[in-house]
Amino acid sequence: MLIRYLPKFKKQYKKLPKKIQQQFDARLMLMLHDPTRPELRLHPLQGKFKGYWSMNVNGDIRVIYLMHGETMIIFALIGSHSQLFG
Fold first, then answer.
1. The domain spanning residue 21 has which CATH number?
2. Helix or strand or coil: residue 22?
3. What are the mean pLDDT values of the chain's consecutive 10-residue runs (86 residues total)?
4. Which domain, by its residues, includes 77?
5. Spatial separation of the C-alpha atoms in residues 49 and 19, rounded to whole Å
6. pTM of this prediction exceeds 0.70
7. What secondary structure does DSSP assign to 25-76, as a single string?
């Protein structure tokens, strides 16, 4: 599986506390090994993010990403639920 990060994601990720960065890294590994794990809460989005997917990093932090076929994940945004969804 190829993983890509949009520039906006990279900028948001760098601003996060190290603890949250580590939580994302752990969730990414979990997602790659077993995407059916319920704690990931992977689900497709609707509305302005239609076509994107969401993944929980922790209780409030979410990641928005695109699936490009079954071979590539493109991470678009990371932040709190209110930052991403208003």
1. 3.30.2310.20
2. helix
3. 96 98 97 94 96 96 94 97 92
4. 2-85
5. 27
6. yes
7. HHHHHHHHH-TT-GGG--EE--GGGTT-EEEESSSSEEEEEEEETTTEEEEE
